[in-house]
Design goal:
This protein has 116 residues and is mainly alpha-helical. It has helices at residues 3-44, 76-114; strands at residues 51-54, 58-61, 65-68. The chain has 2 domains: 1-46; 48-116. The chain has a 3-stranded antiparallel beta sheet with strand order 1-2-3, with helices on one face. The radius of gyration is 29 Å and the shape is elongated. The N and C termini lie far apart (96 Å).
Length: 116
């Protein structure tokens, strides 16, 4: 086998190895993205029964309580941010509860008027 043929064969082998490396990289990337999407759906896309984690130091339980861990390592500004998120969540929950209550009253009155 001539030097030229050996060079061509070597280039083909290198090309095949590069393609395998690319395919493995793409496979691993797709696997990682799939795992991230699955975990994200598990935490975000499912019913949380009114429990809303706010980072790792706070949680809002819809219509009931907001708990903010106030460890000595946390600044007042960090605590305020968590309380602000709790307040926004509660305002949204409260507004939705009020709309639901009004809707139920309207349907109940409609049933009384219609005789159902």
């Amino acid at each position: 086998m001539s030097e030229w043929e050996k060079g061509v064969e070597n280039n083909i082998d290198n090309s095949i190895n590069e393609n395998r490396h690319r395919m493995m990289t793409l496979f691993i990337g797709a696997l990682v993205i799939g795992l991230i999407l699955t975990v994200s759906y598990a935490f975000i896309g499912t019913n949380n029964d009114g429990i809303h984690p706010i980072g790792k130091n706070a949680v809002y339980i819809a219509g009931e309580v907001c708990t903010v861990n106030a460890g000595m390592e946390r600044t007042p500004e960090e605590l305020r941010k968590d309380f602000d998120v709790c307040e926004k969540l509660h305002n949204g929950y409260y507004a939705n509860a009020q709309r639901t209550e009004v809707t139920e009253i309207i349907f109940t009155e409609a049933e009384v008027v219609s005789g159902k």
